[in-house]
Amino acid sequence: MKKTVSFNFRFLLKGLLVVITLLMVGCSVVPLSKDNGTPIVIPFEGAPVTVTIRNDRLVIANNRPDIIYYRIFPTEILPVIEWAPCIAPEACPAEQQVNPGEEKQIALKTIVGDDTQSITLFWWRFLERQPGASVPPMKMEELEVMMP
Fold it and tell me: Which pLDDT band holds residue 135 (cuts at 50, 70, 90)?
């Protein structure tokens, strides 16, 4: 008698994304000053990405030569949510990307509540897709930003 094994591709892909994300993520804590809006420079393979709080808005500036993609969450909810980055540029929502040389402003009130002490910004970029690959490789960073 033959045994049949069911194969859940989505489950495998989700697990693979989690493992890849965990392997690529570096973590740091950076306090931002709301008073003077001094930019915090976050190096990412050479060219910087800057993050500031300006007029109750989180500003992400992409000084890189390629598009970056991001997700932002209150740090407190990370243990209870499941999320995964988009797996290819064509699958990423336009509102979650910053083009080269541009900046994206996000109202803090859309990210944080009154009790939020920090937010975590995940951002990544895609590398060149290899011939025959269904998805391109990516490089990802994680940054915890303490609220002022």
Answer: confident
| Rounded Cα gap, residues 38 and 88, in angstroms | 33
Phi/psi for 37 (5° steps) reads: 65, 25
**What's this model's pTM, rounded to 2 decimal places?**
0.67
Give the list of residues 6+ apart from residue 120 with CB closer than 8 angstroms, or none.
Answer: 72, 73, 74, 75, 78, 142, 143, 144, 145
Q: Kindly provide the residue ranges of all beta strands, DSSP E only, lying in the chain, ordered along the sequence.
A: 29-31, 40-43, 48-54, 57-62, 68-74, 97-98, 103-107, 118-126, 138-146
Q: What is the DSSP letter of 36?
A: T
Q: Which residues pair with 59 in a beta bridge?
A: 52, 105
Enter the tokens of residue 13: 């892909």
